[in-house]
Amino acid sequence: MKRTTICLLILMFLFIPIASYSASNGPIKAPKKVKPNPHQDTYKSEIEIRIDKIENECMENNPTQGGMNDCAGKSLEAWDKALNEVYGKLMKRLDEKSKISLRDSQREWLKYRDSHFKFLETYYDKLEGSMYVGMHTKDETAIVRERVLTLLSLLDLLKLELDKP
């Protein structure tokens, strides 16, 4: 018993300095404030930046759980609008064969989206709590966002190819 107590006391005295000093043997200081990266949006599309701005402004105006849920809904609406916008722009630049193929692909994607949304609805219906409303909407948004970015990358590539000198 004495031996265990002595070992515990020795270990305790060994770890006390670690808790109060950093690796430089000075007192632990509060972490420095991290400056925002001015280039963080460098690889974001204009659409992503625009929708992020809508969502961030919404969240600043209503930081409650209900407000966050409303903002998630506004984000989903914005991504859905962007999907129609990008799809339309891409269709205008495609030849007839590619238009038909994209139209068919979009119809199949819409079936997938609707099916996955039904799954998410049954999944989240079993969970209780207002935070799950926003999480459900965020999951739906992720699906639409991914499709928008996929079509946008195809549009950007096509613009590069068609606009070559």
**Radius of gyration, taken over Cα atoms and rounded to an integer in Å:** 26 Å
Flag low-confidence runs.
none
Shape: elongated
List the secondary-structure elements in sequence, H or E: HHHHH
| Percent of sequence in beta strands | under 5%
How many helices in DSSP terms? 5
Q: Could you name the CATH class? A: Mainly Alpha
- How far apart the termini lie comes to 86 Å
Written overview of the protein:
This protein is 76% helix and 0% strand. It has 165 residues and is an all-alpha fold. The chain has helices at residues 2-20, 46-61, 65-93, 96-125, 131-162. It is built from five helices and no strands.
Write the topology of this structure.
Elements: H1 2-20, H2 46-61, H3 65-93, H4 96-125, H5 131-162
Keywords:
mainly alpha; 165 residues; Substrate Binding Domain Of Dnak, Chain:A, Domain 2
